[in-house]
Amino acid sequence: MGGRYRIQTGRLQLDPVSWGDLEDIVRLKASATVTGRLAGGVCNRVLSERDMTTDLMTWGREGVGMFAVRQQGRFIGLAGVQPSTVSPDCHELHFSIFPHEHETGLSREATSLALAFAHEGGVRRAISYVRESDIVGRQVFGGAGMSVCDTPPEAHGPDILLYQSLRPAAKPMSLH
Questions:
Q1: Cα–Cα–Cα angle for 23, 6, 55, nearest 5°?
Q2: What is the mean pLDDT of each run of 10 residues along the chain (176 residues)?
Q3: Assessment of whether the complete model's pTM goes beyond 0.70
Q4: DSSP 24-37
Q5: Cα distance between residue 75 and residue 71, in whole Å
Q6: Which domains are seen in the chain, by residue range?
């Protein structure tokens, strides 16, 4: 992916996931105590490798995807978008941060940066599913600029909230 997709702040560095991140990602996805959630939940190495292949293909096909998040050069988690499995007109925003690295501010910062990048890359609608009782998830997605949809997602149960972020469609240029 090169440096053109790198996002750097005073505290964090986000790079598109790569095979070089695989060992860290396997460790992250195998942990049941990770803060945040990814679409596949806790998984083994084979599933992590399959997810990595999908993530790399998404970057190649769409120019957006999952970022490896580092603080002072250390891998602390993932944040980014994946094509929605429920709705073909949008992407799902996910974050996952190791608990010993967790600080709501870092999760929110990484997720905000990944969301802004996705919108700049052409993603018009990003969604996230959050349990009503998941205060951290709600703080992270709300702090990233997402809002709760009025219509709850039917397929996910009554205690699940649907967050979304919409980027207005580009206005056609006028010659007058």
A1: 50
A2: 79 96 93 66 86 94 95 94 87 88 81 96 93 89 92 69 83 50
A3: yes
A4: HHHHHHH-TT-EEE
A5: 7
A6: 3-121 (3.40.630.30)
